[in-house]
Structures are given as structure tokens and as C-alpha cells.
Amino acid sequence: MPTPYAGDLTPREAWDLLATDPRALLVDVRTDGEWRTIGVPDTADLVGDDADERTAFVQWTDAFGRPNPAFLNDLAAVGLTADEPRPVVFLCRSGVRSVAAATTATAAGLGPAYNVISGFEGDVGPDGQRGHWGWRAEGLPWREA
Questions:
Q1: Which of 84, 11, 96, 87 lies closest to 56, judged by CA?
Q2: Which interval of the chain is the signal sequence (predicted)?
């Protein structure tokens, strides 16, 4: 069954898209608390003058799980508009909220919009901990916020 957005990317595929398409934007949709305590993707190594501007931070929900009513306005504020299509890669903690974000962005005419499967640190593993899958586990650049 087709997805209601452009598709799912592994973290490595997401990085490759960001590295090869200077218009592509990574949007981390986790909460402010997650950014501060877990870390954030670091796109500073990407080629181009605007490498520091290749990642945006737009919460999908707040820390209590309440939807961000300004989500689409926040995306517009970071340069995503239907008038100027550009690839957008959504990332969350495990790849669930980013599906909803990619679906919403696509419905609003943004994108193509992609979801990063396994997110920043993946689902809880057999040991009860996260971090076995996702952006960090694949060794992609990240930093403390």
C-alpha cells in the first residue's frame, strides 16, 4: 500500500539525500526537551554555504503529546512553502511522529516529504533501552544541543 507521503528513508539514505541535494531540508520534529537531552542531527559537514541551515527544529507535539497547532506555520517560517517545492526529510525519535509530519506536509502541498525510519535513536530494544537503531546508531553526525 502506498504511503501518503514521498516515502521512507533509512537514516543513511536521508543523509545521502541531504548531501546530494542542497535544497533538501532535514526537519527534526521531536520536542525541545528531546533536542536538549538526547542530542540533534548535525548537518554542518554538508557541502555548501548554507550547511548550518540544512536542519530545522519544529515540534510536532509538545512534551505532553499535545499537537502543535502552528506546525504548518512553523514549517513556512523555516522556508518550506508549496510555491517552492523542495525535498523535506522528517525525523523524530523512532520514526512515528515523523510519519504524521510527512503526511501533513504532503497534504499541505509541501515536499516531496520523507520519513526517516527508526528516527534519531529507534524503538526500545530487547534490553529496554533505545539507541540500537536510527541516526545515531548508524554513526551519522550529531551533537549535543
A1: 87
A2: none
